[in-house]
Amino acid sequence: MANGPIDLEGAPTLVLCFDPELAIAAELRGASGVQVVCDGPVEIPGAEAAPRLTWKELRALPKGSLGATRLVVHTLRSARPRGILRGLRQCAPDAHCFLVDSHGSWFESNGRGAVVLAAARGLRRLIGATPVARLAATYLRYEVDPSWPNLEATLGAADEVVAYAEGRPVREVPATPRVVHYIGALGPGGAERQLTLLARGARERGLDVEVWTAYSLEGSEGHYVPDLEAAGVKVRALGLHHRTRTMNPKRGVAVDFVRDHLSSFTLYPLITELQRDPPDVLHCWLDESNTLGAIAGLLTDVPRILVSTRNVSPIHFPRLLRPWFRTSYQALARSPRVTFVANSQAGADDYAAWLELDPARFRRVYNGFEGERFKRSNPAQRATQRKLLGFKDDAFVVVGVFRLAEEKRPQDFVRVVARLRELVPTLRVLHLGVGAQAERTHHEARQLGLEEVLDFRGRVPDPWRYLQVADASILVSDAEGCPNAALESQAMQVPIVATRVGGTPETVVDGETGYLCDMGDVEGIAQRLAQLAGDPELRARMGRAGAELVAARFGVGRMVEESLALYSDKVSAS
Questions:
Q1: Can you give the pTM of this predicted structure?
Q2: In what order do the strands lie in the sheet with 472-475?
Q3: DSSP 499-514
Q4: Quick one: pLDDT at residue 211?
Q5: In degrees, to the nearest 5, what angle opens at C-alpha 338 toward C-alphas 333 and 339?
Q6: How far apart are CA 53 and CA 431, in angstroms?
Q7: Which CATH code of 3.40.50.150, 3.40.50.2000, 3.40.50.11690, 3.40.50.300 fits the domain covering 375-554?
Q8: Residues in contact with 12: Cβ distance below 8 Å, sequence separation at least 6, in sequence order
Q9: Do domains 6-126 and 375-554 have the same CATH topology?
Q10: What is the rounded CA–CA span in Å between residue 521 and residue 415?
Q11: Superfamily assignment of 151-368 in CATH?
Q12: What is the CATH number of domain 6-126?
């Protein structure tokens, strides 16, 4: 099943809304020709302004009068075969059908398949009401017609869990606690890297440490597994719970609070493992794992829970925001067993404003950076490396290390390169990274004729090799927590020109280790880079200052010690 928005490509579309309370489960893109069928008010993301028909009005329309070539069934939880057939009457014979699950995923089918699935769902509802089905659920732990997740239950789950946990006994955290880190996966991201550094550091200090992931660790999603296992840290992927399997009632956990949570498939395996193998500390990373992990930890009496935010709040990243994040965080903030952690003061302040909390509720722990791995080559080695990469001696080399994602503003990056080419004829630019905006960014670069100047290298295992040859680096994001790209660049004595957003000003001293510009200021960023191009002494001075800043403020040992201090019972979570 696919996740994310359904791209309708502007085609005439009919949305059959059987589940108005789960409007958030579907997000439509390219929805310029949409009609929504629903008897009550509904606002489906991406189609809020779409005209609406009632089911009675749909029945009264002549066959084919809407001419739809796309049919969205929303959702399978409540879909009725007769309603789908009425929708198909208004569609072209070869219409594409998109069937939305209440969890927010979706898949494509033809009209006949949609009707058959809805009929099967109805049959399960009928069988699920029989005594035989109830016996199967009790003794075989198999539910014929399991309850379906819904938004209302999800929004209230954290409140109920926090209230439940208030009356539970809490054991003390020992001096050498057993720690479990919980995260979605271990791909090559900044949060995953910090988790790995912390887990390794804790293991070196004698702690029993494991890492659990919600999802598979296959391919690039297991990028940091070898590093962790080499340090003696066990890694496990928990996987997803099957909807028809019930939780064992003998385990005594109040799973009814999360039974209908939109992420119950993820919560159930975590709850099971926490009961089977309880840690003293559950350290969660990133918003989804934070909100789910803390709920599971409170339900299973974990005495100390950390929720580690890694950027500014998710309201800045609509594609990552889930409707329950805010209410869940607000409820979790009431529990003294939950400690909120941010990796920049700007991130803490932004989350606090979004959640209407006192910023003091957050503990700030700056990222740790392995500066010893990023030592600058001597001039002879650097000259050799530049030649191997095809750069002339007089080339001004700029490197950008960031994902090609919307929040990184890759189009601004391309426009800066185009403007800088006019100012610095010897310019050469390398970009390292991949992302959803790759095709669009590459196309814009071609449109601007940058093929001879800008080289997209994609994902590389050794970005330091390219920073070794750089004269400057660039980061033009619209939001950042504690950007590793800025730390890497400065550790390599490469001055950076970055946007003044989020926690970036906490990692770059404007005018001393690099330059900060306003977000979207293409001309200003280009001018600052041109200034560096024309002044080798300035580059060298900023480079030395940057390396000193990273060593003093962002050492790995400091990050590990500050994090471990938060595991102690002596530290108040609130």
A1: 0.77
A2: 454-458, 427-432, 396-401, 472-475, 496-499, 514-517
A3: E--TTGGGT--BTTTE
A4: 99
A5: 95
A6: 49
A7: 3.40.50.2000
A8: 33, 66, 67, 68, 69, 70
A9: yes
A10: 10
A11: Glycogen Phosphorylase B; (3.40.50.2000)
A12: 3.40.50
Number of H helices and E strands in the chain, helices first, is 19, 21
Backbone φ and ψ for 183, nearest 5 degrees, come out as -155, 165
Q: How far apart are CA 56 and CA 46, in angstroms?
A: 24
Mean pLDDT by 10 residues, the chain (574 residues): 75 91 76 88 86 94 91 86 93 89 75 83 70 63 60 88 93 95 93 97 97 94 96 93 51 72 88 94 98 97 97 89 93 98 96 98 95 78 89 96 94 98 98 93 97 94 87 96 92 97 97 98 98 97 96 94 88 48
- Count CA atoms within 13 Å of residue 413 on its CB side: 35
**pLDDT for position 2:** 61
Contacts of 380 (CB under 8 A, 6+ apart): none
Q: How do 91-100 and 106-109 pair as beta strands? A: antiparallel
Cis peptide bond prior to 75, omega within 30° of 0: yes
Would you say how long the chain is, in residues?
574
Spatial CB neighbours of 97, under 8 Å, sequence gap ≥ 6: 70, 71, 72, 73, 108, 109, 110, 111, 113, 114
Domain spans, the chain: 6-126, 151-368, 375-554
CA atoms within 13 A on the CB side of 528: 25
Identify the pLDDT of residue 436. 87
Predicted pLDDT at 244: 42
